[in-house]
Structures are given as structure tokens and as C-alpha cells.
Amino acid sequence: MNSIPIKNQFIYLGVAFFILLSVMPWITVKELSFKIIHFYTIYFGVVNTFIGGTFWWNSGLKDSNYIHLTSITASLIACFAIFISLNSIALSILINLMLLNLLSLYENNFLRDKVKFHNYIDTRKMATYLVTLTAILQIAFLFNPYLTNFS
Q1: Could you tell me the CA-to-CA distances from 101 to 27, 95, 133, 145, 149 in Å, in that order?
Q2: Per the domain annotation, does 102 fall within a domain?
Q3: Is residue 150 situated within a structural domain?
């Protein structure tokens, strides 16, 4: 069974939720906006934890212990970013953003020579770019100089 189209549909669904969460702070009231951004950072960390955990399916590849260690480390960093979001939302977004791009590079390194995964790789690249843009939107909202005078 080819599960790549199903994975791609779930990627599109997840990206759509990221886009919704990144637009909402700009159109809602200030108090609700910060709660939405905090939820965004938690969601971002959970998604990164899940993406890091998906490397377990590569256990048949060479250096599977290295892959498992990478998977566990990525998941722990994402969980750490969730806990950091209690004190610094911007730092948590930056950690999650760097982790997402590193996970994308790592995954592309293992899958680029497999022909059946080319569609999946293209979808993951597009999703990584879009989520990076949504993270930049969230950081722009947090450091918006006009927000302090907004009532």
C-alpha cells in the first residue's frame, strides 16, 4: 500500500492549521493574540516531536542506532522548546524553527535517493517553507512596535 498520498494530505492539513494560527493574532484582540501565539508554540513543539519520532520507521537503514539517537534527541529538544515557551515565546519559536529545518535536511539526506519518496520530499520542503513563514509572522507580531500603543 502506498501511504505517501495520505501523508501528503496530512501535511497539507497541518500546514493549514499553522497558517490559521499565524493569521489569527493579527485579527483578534491583544489578550487573545498572545494566547493564540502561545498555543502556536506548543503546537509547533508537538509537531516537531512527532516529526522527530517518525525517524523510527528508518530502523532498517544502515546506522539505525544513529537514527534512533537522532530521533530521541530531536524529540527532547522539541519538548524542551515547549517548556521554554512558558518564559520566552520568541525563543521557543526560534528553537522549533531551527529544529524543523534541521529535521527537514536530515530527512532529505536519507530519502533523496529513493525514487518513491520524491513527491513526499517536495511536500515536506513546501511545508517547511510555509511553516517558516508562519513562524516569522508570529515573531513579527511579538516584536511589533505598534502593538504596545494598541488598545
Answers
A1: 28, 10, 12, 28, 34
A2: yes
A3: no
Candidates 136, 106, 139, 140; CA nearest to 124 is 106
pLDDT digits (tens, 9 = 90+) for 77-99: 999 999 999 999 999 999 999 99
Contacts of 100 (CB under 8 A, 6+ apart): 44, 47, 48, 51, 128, 131, 132
Q: For residue 54, give every residue at least 6 positions away whose Cβ sits within 8 Å of its Cβ, in sequence order, or none.
A: 71
53-75 pLDDT, tens digit per residue, is 887 765 555 556 677 788 889 99
This prediction has a pTM of 0.87
First-residue to last-residue Cα distance in the chain:
55
Domain enclosing residue 15, as ranges: 4-142
